[in-house]
Amino acid sequence: FQLGMGLGPLQAGLAAAPQAVGMIVGFVLSQVLGLSRRTMFIGFGTVAAGLTALIVLMTIVSVGLTVWPLLIPLTLVGIGMGLAIAPFFDIVLAGVHDNEVGSASGSLTAVQQLGNAVGVAALGTIFFTVLTGTAADEAAYAHALSTALGWAIGLIVLASVITVFLPRRARDNAEQIH
After folding, report:
1. Contact 79, 46 (CB under 8 A)
2. Helices (DSSP H) in 61-100: which residue ranges?
């Protein structure tokens, strides 16, 4: 947002807000839909749809893109993330004994943060490897970002495939491990 579109720090932060709000909506929706693999698949599909919309948008409008057209795709990405993350934590922690849930939750959060850092580094490397041109070259930024987002969609598909190996849903309170 700052280098590619020339936004200031405040504007760039506000431009990312729809994704954050979307995550909150996704977390709420995951409670309505149920904390299950099905909800995770819906979330992954929604993230992929949002990322695909961003790629299409940047392909069509590679120069002069403003923040407003990004509103819907970024919101979709956020909603999908909320739909996928909430059931994941519930399903994974359901297989842990009650007296170990605190430690497992902390470990799971740490692994999630590590995954976030590695993902940002990997996609950032792809972005900057593809990026050619100068900081003022919006088309080069759009192309590099579209390429990195394409890889992100591939990772979302991989996550969907791996999700098949998780239990269908978290355990009910009556099924708690003792």
Report:
1. yes
2. 71-94
Residue 126 contacts by C-beta under 8 Å, 6 or more apart in sequence? 147, 148, 151
Residue 64, C-beta contacts closer than 8 angstroms, at least 6 positions apart:
138
pTM, two decimals, is 0.86
Tokens of 20: 């954050």
* Residue that has been written with the tokens 């999700």 in this structure: 163
* 55: amino acid identity, one letter: I
| Dist CA 5 CA 155 (whole Å) | 26
Q: Which residues pair with 169 in a beta bridge?
A: 36
Asked if residues 79 and 72 have their Cβ atoms less than 8 Å apart, the reply is: no
pLDDT tens track for 116-171 = 999 999 999 999 899 876 656 778 888 898 999 999 999 999 999 999 988 887 76
Distance CA 85, CA 41 (A): 11
Question: What torsion, rounded to 10 degrees, do the Cα atoms 17, 20, 21, 23 define?
Answer: 160
Integer Cα distance of 62 and 143 in angstroms: 8
